[in-house]
């Protein structure tokens, strides 16, 4: 699946300049969406675009590794 990276629009749930929580929430939402509906479910890509835009690559790599190892500190199962 090809993803176009672009700046995410304003989200009223995260009005502060610090976007750390928004980054994490979108990674979590994407993980839950994929677990429930599968990677081919198009609405999941919205969360992926958001976390790829907002999160530092190092965080994503760490979370992906933790998910693969089963040590991610939150449950992503459906």
The main sheet comes to:
none
**Helix residue percentage:** 40-55%
Q: Which radius of gyration do the C-alpha atoms yield? A: 12 Å
Unreliable sequence segments: none
What structural class results from the helix and strand content?
A: mainly alpha
Mean pLDDT: 87
Instruction: Output the helix-strand order.
Output: HHH
Ends apart, CA distance between termini: 21 Å
Outline of this structure?
The chain has 78 residues and is mainly α. It is built from three helices and no strands.
Architecture overview:
This protein is an all-alpha fold and 78 residues long. It has helices spanning 20-37, 44-54, 57-69. Helix 1 runs antiparallel to helix 2. The longest helix is centred in the middle third of the chain and has 18 residues, at 20-37. The radius of gyration is 12 Å and the shape is globular.
Provide key terms for this protein.
single chain, 78 residues
Map the helices and strands.
Elements: H1 20-37, H2 44-54, H3 57-69
Helix pairs in contact: 1-2
